[in-house]
Backbone:
């Protein structure tokens, strides 16, 4: 019994070291987090540190892949949101909430979106020559490593740029509300 506890604690230590070594990689951190949970399971045999580490990492990757596949499958089964059923809620001065139907795109909404994107692009230019490209990759839902390779900068630089862009977006959205 003591051997199992020592093996599990060593595996947990190794997994935490792995997470520290690649703290910039969100997908890898999800795998390590899942592996940590799997390593804690008493149903899993823990006789060898190397075997248990390899097994929980393999199973964690499979779990993450299966979860993504199931999420895509369940999302495909649901209908797309209907613009005719969208509602905008506003809070009145007395605390009551009013819901209004949004049945179509308005010219005002398009102008607000265009203005927000223009201001974000100006902000991205101030970040450096990689800023507008990082913004485009972010809007195109590119991963951080792909964006870093495409822009010729480090992953940390792309992460900082995205963090700054998100912060600026929050500021712009709070100003518009």
Residues:
């Amino acid at each position: 019994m003591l051997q199992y506890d020592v093996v599990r604690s060593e595996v947990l230590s190794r997994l935490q070291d792995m997470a520290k070594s690649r703290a910039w990689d969100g997908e890898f951190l999800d795998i390590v987090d899942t592996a940590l949970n799997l390593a804690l399971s008493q149903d899993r045999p823990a006789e060898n540190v190397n075997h248990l580490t390899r097994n929980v990492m393999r199973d964690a990757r499979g779990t993450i892949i299966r979860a993504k596949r199931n999420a895509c499958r369940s999302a495909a089964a649901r209908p797309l949101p209907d613009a005719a059923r969208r509602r905008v809620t506003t809070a009145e001065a007395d605390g009551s909430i009013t819901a209004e139907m949004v049945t179509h795109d308005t010219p005002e909404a398009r102008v607000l979106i265009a203005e927000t994107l223009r201001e974000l692009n100006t902000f991205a230019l101030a970040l450096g020559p990689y800023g507008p490209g990082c913004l485009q990759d972010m809007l195109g839902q590119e991963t951080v490593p792909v964006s870093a390779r495409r822009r010729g900068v480090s992953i940390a630089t792309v992460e900082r740029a995205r963090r700054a862009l998100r912060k600026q977006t929050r500021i712009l959205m709070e100003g518009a509300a």
